[in-house]
Amino acid sequence: xxxxTSTLIxxxxxxxxxxxxxxxxxxxxxxxxxxxxxxxxxNSRCRCxxxxxxxxxxxxxxxxxxxxxxxxxRPVPPASACYPPSNPSGNCSIATTLxxxxxxxxxxxxxxxxxxxxxxxxxxGSVSGCYINTTLGLxxxxxxxxxxxxDARTTEDVQAAVKFAARHNLRLVVKNTGHDYLGRSAGRGAxxxxxxxxxxxTYDANFIPEGGSSSDATxxxxxxxxxxxxxxxxxxxxxxxxxxxxLSTGMSVGASGGWIQxxxxxxxxxxxxxxxxxxxxxxxxxxxxxxxxxxxxxxxxLFWALRGGGAGSWGVILSVTYKAHELLxxxxxxxxxxxxxxxxxxLPIVTEFIKLHPTLxxxxxxxxxxxxNTSLMAFWVAPNVSWAEANATIQPFFDLVRNVTQNPNVTTxxxxxxxxxxxxxxTFGSISLSGSxxxxxxxxxxxxxxxxxxSGERAEDTARRLLEMGNVAINAICGGAVSRADPSSTGxxxxxxxxxxxxxxxxxxxxGASPEVIQAVRQQLVSDIHHLDPISPDSATYMNxxxxxxxxxxxxxxxxxxxxxxxxxxKYDPKSLFIVAEGVGSEDWNGDxxxxx
Length: 597
Hints:
The chain is of the alpha+beta class.
């Protein structure tokens, strides 16, 4: 069925906005929030938090501020502009209008992309937060938003902040954009280092990592910690190059923070490798306040850990240098179908869809999809693929869908772009920022899908298992070049190298939901984890799109690399200044990460 290009792009834009959160949109169920387990005090085994007698005095904060390039920040929840409702303290109309705008949220130190991390749940189930829905009649409270921090614009700002936090034994969090399904950049009563304004970008056609030789020279782009992927892509385009990076509404995810430290997936990973396979140097401030460089030749153990060992555990990233790739033509293809008879049609369609993933990834295709027993939507993209090659790869599946549904007019699309920039601008770059991805209470459960689980007779078992869950999504962001990389080359969970997709389910809840509702969704997400385990390589998953309630986070996030990561952590951060939820070493701490066990 032929459709003109403009119509296809319009449909694709709608598809892109829906696919990442298809389970959320289809299921309309709820999700959990961070659990509270008590506060810090001046005890030597505990971190100092706001409200404790150990908290620095205003004079001490004034002294800190005098040595910084910017005044200290006092983060507040983004809905605070609407309180008190009878006489709002700020421009409530802006907050209401832009509530789901990812760039607006990223520009505020007190805003998080998912609002559950702006709240705090006490042991008794009560929630402290500040809701945009003022009709709930609830007070506006600080929740898990840190009350004070440093707006870091220079290396010296970060060094001063780290040393201050260490000297006063503060609970420390590092935040850029607040894109994080584990809430690692939030912390009730914590001290924040906000790296969002470290926006430098530098292209070098012959970059040599520190300690390397001329034979290591490669085109590369160095991105400051505050650079977001939209800005990074623009910087690369100015030099006629492209980067393997994140794709989201507004391109607001940070390029040099949690994304890369968690592995860094992309639709282009099957062709070029994950973010960790493309990073060639880091600069960061260590727990002692020292400026360090990590590359294959300088601090190579730290370089290994930073590539997949998890965000917020190793220091404050100042910059990351990535390989800058040649611009190549690409092809995008996809479909959006309704399954008219779920009982007889869903299983054969989804089985073949699952089987498609090893083939697609091996040929360099990546993309995103979501399905239930009544619908399937997906799109994929691949660089340097001819029209004939694209049709040969994907057309058999399209034909099967038409045959099974007995509908010759099933809408599919395939069309070329001159390069990455043209594709990005026509698709993700033109999607409304006020989409479904941010501004709500959202959590995930996920597992990587093993190649074996998507092959042969196992594929039908996998399809049946996923259909039993109701609504799931699959990110086709591994296999191919990801599988060809040496599992020991980075700190990333080795399970990634045996996977062909990331499967996840989504839970959400409305503002002001009762503890019982939140707990029910939490239990469902934990149940989903167990249901997904049989399809995964040794229970592995992507820590950046995972659950706070993993039965064994060390196994799921780090696999066999955990012990080595723990040793590197001890070397560079022996006092555990940098501790985050389900991060390396966090098992030694309580749920609030304020006191050691």
